Amino acid sequence: MIDQVLRWKTLVEEHRYNFPLGLIVTPTRELAFQIGLEAKKICQYLGIRTKTITGGKTKKIMLDPPVEKVDIVVSSFGVISKLTTTNIYKLNMVRHLVLDEADALFHETFEDQLKVFLKRMPLGFTQNVDDTKLPTTAQFTLASATMPSRMTEVLENVINVQSLKHVTSDKLHHVLVPQKFIRLGQDDKPTELLKYIKPKVANKEQVIIFTNNNSTCNWVSMFLNNSNIPTLALNGDMQLYDRQNQYANFKSGKCQVLCTTNAGSRGLDTVTVRHVLNYEFPNATADYIHRCGRTGRVGSIKNCRVDNFVSTSNEIAVVQKIERAIRKMKPIPIFDIRDVQNEDDYNEPFKPLGNERQEEFSIPY
Q1: Do 174 and 145 form a contact (C-beta atoms < 8 A)?
Q2: What stretch of H or E contains 182?
Q3: b/e code 20-55 from CB counts within 10 Å (16+ = b)
Q4: Low-confidence ranges of the chain (pLDDT < 50)
Q5: What are residue 234's DSSP bridge partners?
């Protein structure tokens, strides 16, 4: 995108206020903020003007809209959708659109709004070959560790779906990180959490704890802090400023433990994290893959691992499907246990987990 924008901006420089040429859209404010920082670092000496827009101040922006020349906008979906609906930012000159963490943006809660948003840009696969003119249509890039199963359904009236080219890395979902699945009752979780976390904090090893909802995230954070284990919380109940501060304090190493929901599972740069604990096991395997991806990253420290507390029948069912996929040397199936009935071959009879309290094996993700 940067190389493209360098060429395009010389063609349409005059009177281009609030008309970006490149647009990167994310599902969360934290991810938009992080990408925006990196974009600014790269572009500041290239003469490319970047702008990062996140929610929380939308009304203020609408009351006093900026008027500025901008080349690349990085934004979370909700705010850019509102600001383009009100015509504060215009999208008819966008020539490269990137949806990062696309599977989250294609969730059915965003679907109708996303369709309207995409139709504001001239997306297409045909291009003029004259380098002295701006391309006639915009390039469309979807980036994610897991691609949405609903992609065709959402895009069929927006673009020619057959024109999409799929680019997949050789080792997608095949990074080997030891993963332990610990069977225990719900009432045992707090005690086991303390046993799990204390030695890691003593060794100054960073840990991310995942829960499935904001209330549990807040409770776990409070419980650990009351147990003299400094813990930061990051979830959707918090204001943007507080969330950014919490993540910055964790990333800088001021605190070793971060408790979060799926809000902290996608895209964030966490190369210093050695341990991931799923205090609550996710219902969707896509969420599990993204949570696992917070450790064992390129440039990470060694001896990373993922641990999982497994309690409910739904959680056990997801673990069994993951283990079955690995034993059959198949990719981890993308599904939500709440939606799956008997429609796939992973539902054939499976030997239950044994009487052992813990079961550990390494799986690729």
Answers
A1: no
A2: strand 176-183
A3: bbbbbbbbbbbbbbbbbeebbeebeeeebbbbbbbb
A4: 175, 341-365
A5: 260
What pLDDT, in 10s, does the model give residues 105-131? 887 777 888 989 999 998 887 666 677
Longest Cα–Cα distance in the chain: 72
Q: Which amino acid is at 105?
A: L
- pLDDT tens per residue across span 236-255: 888 878 888 898 899 888 99
Gap between the Cα atoms of 256 and 268, Å rounded: 16
Sign of CA dihedral 254, 256, 262, 268: positive
Q: List strand residue ranges (DSSP E) for 217-302, in order.
A: 231-234, 257-260, 273-278
CB distance 244 to 265 below 8 Å: no
d(CA 56, CA 105): 19
Which residues touch 311 (CB under 8 Å, ≥6 apart)? 183, 184, 185, 186, 189, 281
